[in-house]
Structures are given as structure tokens and as C-alpha cells.
Amino acid sequence: MPEFFTIAAVLAGYLLGADAIQLGTLDENRAPKVVQQHLYRHPVADAVERDRRRFLHKRQNDNVNAVDVPLRNDLFLYYMNVSVGTPPQDFEVHIDTGSSDLWLNVPTSEFCSLPVDPCTTGTYDANVSSTYEYVNSLFEILYVDKTTSNGDYARDIVRLTDSNVSLPAQQFGVGYESTTQDGILGIGYPTNEAQISFGGPLYDNIPVSMVKEGYINTLAYSLWLNNIDADEGDILFGGVNTAKYQGDLVSLPVIPDRGLYRDFTIEMNSLGLSGDEEAFSSSPLEVHLDSGASLTYLPDDVTDRIYSKVGATYDARYGINIVDCNIANQNETMDFVFSNITIKVPMSEMVVPYANFGAQELCVFGVLPTITSSLGNEYIILGDTFLRSAYVVYDMTNHEISLAQTVFGVDAADDKIVEISSSGDGKPVETGIASLVTPVGTIGSGSGSGAGTGTKNGSGSGSSSRTGEKGIASRFGGQMGLVGMTFVACILSLW
Hints:
Elements: H1 3-14, E1 16-17, E2 22-23, E3 35-42, H2 47-60, E4 67-73, E5 77-84, E6 89-96, E7 102-105, E8 133-142, E9 148-160, E10 166-175, E11 183-186, H3 206-212, E12 220-224, E13 232-237, E14 239-241, E15 245-253, E16 265-268, E17 270-273, E18 285-289, E19 296-298, H4 300-310, E20 313-315, E21 320-322, E22 333-338, E23 341-346, H5 347-350, E24 351-357, E25 360-365, E26 367-369, E27 371-372, E28 378-379, E29 381-382, H6 384-387, E30 390-395, E31 400-406, E32 417-421, E33 477-478, H7 482-494
Helix pairs in contact: 1-7
């Protein structure tokens, strides 16, 4: 680690606060400061290749109050509704905990102009928005295979369609050259924003803006994807829904990457099949929680043992593993063991219908071998085939992931939404770059993440892991002054 970065980390540590974060108590006289958005299911073409490109991009970057929003559960991926601009332009955007930028396609890109009209989830036209503002041309994604996607950053009004959230002058990416059909709403750490790789400063992404605009009290949200057959799930910014999980939430520390919190990386102790004494993996693994990944990606030796047990075989014709669809009817569970909690994933959630050939149904098992970049970095990803069975709280204020066994099929009438308190005294926590840097420059493993494409066009006007405790426990949160933020931002751009 460069010496100047260690100095920056130590400086940030001095500026950190120690505000605790916890679940608030229900107040019948006040609605919880929570934003709820629905998630919806959407078919996705070649999801495995899409995952692969996203992960390779992440590794390339290694060189360098509560709001509940419903989500849409497609064949592999989940989407939510937003509108952007004046007058509003409507979008269905892919929700992604593994990246940090909102970015949108434009109607004039070569990809979106194809005769098959691939960009049906919405395109952004800066020329028809009276509130559009150009920021810079640093929206660029560089893949390991040397392909690039370039575009602009812009500011405009962004609204979360299923709630009353309206974010004025919100920064986002505009993809003028795109090779993917959907816009993406990245809700990860701001340190993972695309422009950081090209010397740009941190900006307030969607979760941070919701805190600053007073819609939620803390930089945290919970994700409930529901079961594989459900049409909808939801995301709850600033709160949790206690009706949608069983037992206690168990908190685990996020593992920093070379002193920076960039990904939702935690330690998994072991993995096995219920009722089987022989574990698929008994050594601790650092795993990334990524809602943008359709499947789960585990080391080759672990994957081989799983395939042998469930009878899955790799089919070179499709580049996927094939499994008997009847495995979904078995009672066994895949048991993901973390400190003080085990998440049990039913076989019905791991066996994914893939295609039909006449009367024959083709199913894949929801685990694939990890993707390794040309730099030799290995991605261990717990994607949607795991996340559907886990109720997950992503806490970027205290750098924790809280897990509980999910409850499927909860009706809205049974919701029990509780606000996540920002601190023990009820005062909101100002989040800035200080809370994203470890105070002692702790070295850990992890990765950046990003997804999206675009090129600039001028369109428009102008392994250190510790055991967690039950509940949402506090670690670090705080506020950094302007001088300190500027100093560390400069260090990040150089590092």
C-alpha cells in the first residue's frame, strides 16, 4: 500500500464518529422514514455472459429515514421503476448492489437503434428535459477484454416511481454507446462509482442523496427478493420489514479492500447440504453479495463437489450446467454457514428453469464456477440464487451486512416496517468519504464493481474478518469536513 494512502486512511480515522445504528421503535403518531420500492421480474438474454462481463470489469478496476421500493423479479434479474427529467421520462432499471452509478441508455445509440428495438425498458433524451445539466465525460467502463463503453455524467431530477422520492440535480451516467438493453441503478458504496477510476471525485449516488434530502435517516437498506416463482419483491431504503424474515438479524462486518469499503464482502464459514456430514467447503471464504448476479459463483473444487452430489453436468453447447428439473422437488437445502447464522436455500430455489425444447424442460443448477480475470483474481459471488432465501440489510454507515432467513410470500397487508435509527440519540448521521475509509488502513480483499455502457457524445444542452453480533451493530460512521473530504478524494484519484 502506498504510504500516502496510509496517511489518508489514518486522517480519515480521526474524523470518524461513533454513532450507533439500531432499529427504531414503532411510533403510531409518525410514519417511519422509510422508502419502499417494488421489484419486478424481467427476462434477460444470456445472463451468464452478462455476469461474466460485469465481474471481469470489476477486477479490471482493481488496477486502478426508510424508503421501501418494490422490485421486479425477472427470470434472473430484478428491476424497479424510476423517472428522470422534466417532463418525466420513464424507465425500468436493473437494481444492482454490486455497482454504484445510476446510468441510462440513449435512443440514438447504435445498440438501441437496432431494428429489433432492444431498449424497451427506457431511453433518456437530454434534449427534451428542461432540467438536464451536463457534468463531465468521465462515465467510462473498461472491460478486461479491452472493450470500452463511454458516456457523459449528467444531472437531472430523478424520481422513484413507487414512492414520493424526488431527487433534484441527481448525478447519473448517460450511455451514448451501449451494448446492454437495460439501464442500471447501482446502490453500492460511492467509492465504487465509475468516474473514480478516471480521476473524478466522489458524488452523492442515489442512497446518499436520499439521506441528504431527508427521506431516510441512515445509509442502509434491506432487500427481499421473494421466491423464484414470485413476480415481485421489494427494497426498503432506511428500514426493515420484520414480517419478511424469521429469527434475529445477525450482523457481519463488511471486509474492506485495501483500506476502502467498496463492495459488500463478508466471510462465509462453510457450505454444505442438509443432512450430509461432508461439507462442500469447510474453509472460510470471502464472498460478495451481488443482486446484479443472476447465479451464485463458487470455487471450482466446491462447484465440482456440488455437481457430483446433485447430478449436474456441464453442457458445452449452452455454456451452463444442466440438472434434472425434478431435483427442485427434493427436501434438501443448500446450507450457507456464516458466523452465528445459517441461511438455508431450498433446492426449489437453486434449480432454475432455463428453456423448453418441445415437451422437454431444461433446468440449470444455480451455482457456476467462479470467474477469474486475466489478472488472476477470483470472484466468489452470492447472487440471486442465494439472495432470494436471505433477508439482507446493507448498512453502509456501519459497514455491516445483516442476515436472516427470509419468509416467502408475505402480503403487503402483513408488512411490519421499522425504521433504522441513525444513532442512539436519534440524530441523523452525515455520511461522507470518511466513513468509507478504515481508520488504520486495514488491508483486506474485495473488488470494485460496475455495469453499464456508453460513450461521450455531446447530446443535450451544454482477509480480515471479525465475528458479528445479533442485530444491526455499530462500527464506524461519521462526518468529514470539506478539507478532509477533498484531501482523501485527491488521494483516491491518484491511488
